[in-house]
Amino acid sequence: MFQKVHLRLTFLCAGVTITIMLIMSLGYLKVSERSLKNSHFTSFQKEMNTFINTLEHQTVITPEWLMNVGIQGKYQIQIIDNEVPLLFHERNTKAQKELFRTAWNYYETHFKIAMVNSTHTIFHIEFPFSSNEQEKDDYYACIAISEQGNNSFQALILAPLQQLESQIRTQRILFFILNLMATIALSLFSWYFIRQLLKPLEESQRKQTQFVAAASHELRTPLAVILSCSSALEQASDTEKKVFLDSIQSEGKRMSRLVDDLLLLTSSEQRRFSICKEPAELDTLLLNAYEVFEPLAAEKSIQLLITLPDTSIPACPCDKERIQQVIAILIHNAISYTSEGGHVALSLSFHKQKYFISVIDNGIGIPDEEKKHIFERFYRADPSRSPKDHFGLGLSIASEIIHEHHGTLQVKDTPGGGSTFTITLACGHI
Ligand code: ADP
């Protein structure tokens, strides 16, 4: 499912950005082509202005003079003096003569009136024109005319636009290559960006699925016991009935505890987990927990010890019930994973405005590679060694609660064997 979403979002993201980029760069290309053409035409006009100005003071026109003023060789020129073409015209090819005729025709149809009305000694006009009607402009033309009495002078200068066109072509190829590279880069970036964006969602969905699967698995065992006991009830003797009813009751309680744990974890995930802080005497909380678990420890021949600060410590702003719940989880685990004859020690200390509650056991301990997993939901280091009423949720609930208090819950090895869990809470404001 995520792969499909990934692909679609990549197409959407890359599609939109690439379209915007193409529209903008096409616009830029158009503007830059137009300004390139304009500047070419303006520089042609300037050159022609200078040429005509020099021409006005010239009495003899030769190819050498034209070469000197930078016209000959660069442009195609036709000069007619008193209806007589200058000699160097004879070198013009047939195609060139045809080209000049087309340029004159173009001038006659489009600009003649403007020229006739002009009052300058030499009238001149520059215009772009196409040698072939169907195609776009391929020349800039300048026509200069002087008619004074019986003397007449006409000049036609044609500037081919191949160089400009090849410049435009190069610009377009560059534009295409750059856009292609940008398209590839944007597509790759979109692919990577969407991947990074979807990763947490994918991870959260994976965890959710795992959570539901694990929860269903845990619920299945007590349900199976309840169902089998209830179906066996019909033919059971009175003594057997009592055993079955006890089983149903204890499995029902187990289920109810599991459902409570699941609800607590779900509400913490949806940020509906409420912490009600009030000043609490942590030594009293620890002492209460000691009293509650003392019988259980004694049942397993485990020595339960407690160490409290000698002097009184300030009340801790926390949710009393929740912290009690965390302490209970830690003591319950410590007793569960410590063999007979072992001992579990509870300790409370206050140092640098921080409270430290430790539950130290000398039980089976937790291998280093397991330590980072034990706070995960439904994680049990060795399910076969976990007691029946341990679902692998205790430490994840404990760490959620401590996290909501902005504190920390850490585990390390007890020197000599076993585990030490330490809760750290800050002595902040409520
Ligand atoms: P559980 O309810 O199964 O104890 P927890 O989340 O409380 O689940 O603990 C997860 C796992 O961490 C346990 O299955 C156990 O393997 C390990 N663990 C927790 N506390 C201790 C401890 N005091 N000593 C050894 N292992 C422990």
Query: Main β-sheet, in a few words?
Result: 5 strands, antiparallel
Mean pLDDT: 87
Low-confidence stretches: none
**How are the strands of the biggest sheet laid out side by side?**
2-1-5-4-3
Bound molecules: adenosine-5'-diphosphate
| Binned strand content | 15-25%
Query: Residue share in helices?
Result: 55-70%
Overall 3D geometry?
rod-shaped
Oligomer: single chain
SSE order, one letter for each helix or strand: HHEEHHEEEHHEHEEHEEHHEE
Number of strands: 12
CA distance, first residue to last residue: 45 Å
User: Which class of secondary structure composition applies to the elements?
Assistant: alpha+beta
What's the helix count? 10
Rg of Cα set: 47 Å
Detailed description of the structure:
The protein has 430 residues and is of the alpha+beta class. It has ten helices and twelve strands. Helix 8 packs antiparallel against helix 10. It is rod-shaped and about 140 Å long. The mean pLDDT is 87. It binds adenosine-5'-diphosphate (ADP). Adenosine-5'-diphosphate (ADP) binds at residues 329, 333-334, 337, 361, 363-366, 374, 379-382, 386, 390-396, 419.
In short:
The protein has 10 helices and 12 strands.
Essential attributes:
430 residues, 12 strands, rod-shaped, five-stranded antiparallel sheet, five-stranded mixed sheet
Topology of this structure?
Elements: H1 2-56, H2 63-68, E1 76-81, E2 84-85, H3 94-110, H4 112-116, E3 123-129, E4 139-148, E5 151-160, H5 162-233, H6 238-269, E6 278-280, H7 282-299, E7 303-307, E8 316-318, H8 320-336, E9 343-351, E10 354-361, H9 368-371, H10 394-404, E11 408-413, E12 419-426
Parallel strand pairs: 7-9
Antiparallel strand pairs: 1-2, 1-5, 3-4, 4-5, 6-8, 9-10, 10-12, 11-12
Helix pairs in contact: 1-5, 5-6, 6-10, 7-8, 8-10
The structure holds adenosine-5'-diphosphate.
